[in-house]
Amino acid sequence: MLLVTMFSEKPFLDVGVAFRFNLYLLIITGICPLTTLTLEPLYYLHLKLCQHSKICYTNTRVHNNYMSNNAENHKKELIEVIYKISRDKRLLGDFINDILTPREFGIISARWQIAKRLEKGERQRSIADNLHVGIATVTRGSVEMGKKDGGLRRTLKVIHK
Hints:
The chain is an all-alpha fold.
């Protein structure tokens, strides 16, 4: 625990980094031998270490409360911005590249490909294998495509007109 609290003044910017750091501490201090690692108990221990050592970013609670109170307004505003700039492809592309990380953009692109392939009748396992995504991601897309008035289905109808 001494090692954990030594770094408590400098918060991590990424929870994944904090998790790996805490995992490392658990192993080197002997609290959790490397041979007995399982993810769920380790993640629980990681959360406990974060709570007690303030190793994760300190303003998470404040940030989450602010976001949850204003999330719907923020989403509506973002949709309005995208709508206003949607006629300018270059501006829209620049905006998306600036606001999303490459990974986030890739995830959204993959979900769009999933919707298109599901519409064509491709099997879920085949989609997962070809796009290198989990079957649960494809299943989620399938659930969304199953909604008659869902956004994916309506968008595909507009595009195919």
